[in-house]
Amino acid sequence: MNFIAALGLIAAVGVMIFGILLGSPLVIFFDVGALLIVPFTTVLLLGATYGFGTVFRTLGSGFLTLYASRQDPADPAKVRQLEAVAESGIKYATLTGFIGTLIGLVSMLANLEDPTAIGPAMAVCLLSAFYAGGSIMLVFYPLARHAAQQALAIPSER
Question: Beta strands of the chain (E only): which ranges?
Answer without folding.
Answer: none
